[in-house]
Amino acid sequence: MSKSKYQEEIRKKIGHDLLLMPGVAAVIRDENDSILVQRTTKGEWNLPAGAVDPGEKPAQAIVREVFEETGLVAKPVSLIAVTGGAPESRKTYDNSDLVESTTTIFACEIVGGELKPQDDETAHLEYRALDDLPELPPEFRREIFEIRDTGAWFEWDEAWLDRQAKA
Questions:
Q1: pTM > 0.85
Q2: CATH number, domain at 132?
Q3: Which end of the chain has a smaller Cβ tally under 10 Å, C or N?
């Protein structure tokens, strides 16, 4: 995960100590109900996901993160889970930075873009059937993929899609 300017400034103050981070992740399904997964350049599998930047709404962050990683413009349609708490959500990066995340997981639909890796962290993107998912981070338990719609409210602005469509 590349660091935002905010994270870089915080790290200057706290070093490698534990940093609590709000995050987002997307469950994106194709017409066959397969789920989009991402293999990183380190060989790990994940959902399209990332950190929420200061001043950013979680739904806005997932639109940005999905586009940055996959080239797709995704619209969150439902909040399906919130995960967090150690040990599942705690990670030590190669540079010794310790992070613990609370992740808001959205079901998203694709409204534009082209599926292709966009950043230096994504090696491969593919849709996989639920029974054929690779090993994902432990906070993405199988149960979350069975949730379709919680009816939960989240802040949304259609203009967030326009920013990605123009990128």
A1: yes
A2: 3.90.79.10
A3: C
